[in-house]
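Example record used in the benchmark description.
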Amino acid sequence: MGSPSMNLNNAKHTTVITTANISDSAKRDSLLANAEINIATGEREASIQRSEGQKQAQINIAQGEAGAVLAIAEATASAIRQVAASIENPGGMAAVNLKVAEKYVDAFGNLAKTNNTLIVPANLSDVSSLIASAMQVVKTQQK
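Model output (structure tokens):
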């Protein structure tokens, strides 16, 4: 770095200051190296921040999905409790019989739509005995 110089040749004592330049290549190289280090550090920090953001997004998604599963489970449990209570009311078992019969007919109807070959029980024509068998299972489970 150059040093300021003064011109004292004149009677008025005028001061002339020269500018200082970074001419030392070692200092210039050091400044460039520091700048490159700062850029690399910034890029590394940005990469870490992106990674942390992605991780937090995955955590948020997982927590949301877990909350949805829990809500479905609670709704299902509530529905089962309501059905159980309804079965105990007068006419409840008749309603169960009707629902089982509806599901039975729907199931065979859907099988007929999707398959060319249909295997059915030998006593398919006796729907009432099939319903009675299904209801016997329900009654056995109540005991």
